[in-house]
Request: fold
Amino acid sequence: MKPTYGVSTCLAPNLPRAELLEKLAAAGLRDLELGADPEIFGGWLAHPARARREIEAAGLRVRSVHSPENSWDNGSPDPEKRRAAGRNAAACLAPAAEVGAKVVIWHPTYSGYAYSPDEAAGHVARAGESLAAFAELASAAGLGVAVENLPRRKTARPLGSVEELLPFVAAADERVGVCVDAGHSNANGLSAAEEARAAGARLLATHIQDNDGLGEDQHLLPGKGTADWPAFVRALDDIGYAGGRIFEVTNSYGEAEDVLAALTALAREWSP
Reply:
């Protein structure tokens, strides 16, 4: 089956929903990942059924929903912060199911810690407890959970690689897997292609964005950084990956139409 490509709503978070859908349909990009922060995509969380009708009327579909930023501190030493993260993540599950998503993207750790070697193990253990609770709720909602590899940002941040994530998700059922963010792999000095191959059947979602490979999470257009895109696309094809291939770039590099034109050209090049 020919792969399909799509975009994250981070491309134009403040653009009116109808306008963004029109631009996406015109560009020929049919898949969406919706952010679950307030006001994103015209405040879709408050009216997911309405949003789904509009999305489907435009000839598009929702592949995934990204959990909100206030749900990312899942390994915090502070129990109340962890509970708040869990509540905020859980709040997006029912809307995600109603809008038609199949998977929710989940962050195991947060970027605001130094992560000494002694602290890292505690963050992993606590994040594991948080994942178990969230995965149970997601499964009840009919959703999978894709745990994302994350940029280390020049710290010892744990669970930044697929090698670390696979044993982390292994205790869960097959509805819990991995989201390989190719830009995060590149920022961490790793091969996104090799990480996708390592994930194998546990690969439930992907983010496609680029950076200069020096540690920062820049969300550049693919080809504007140093990631090896032919190798990554080949890896996805070789493992028979059938999930979302989501461009997670912003429009800070030009008008939305120009960015979409560039992404459409890449999608055609990568799925001849």
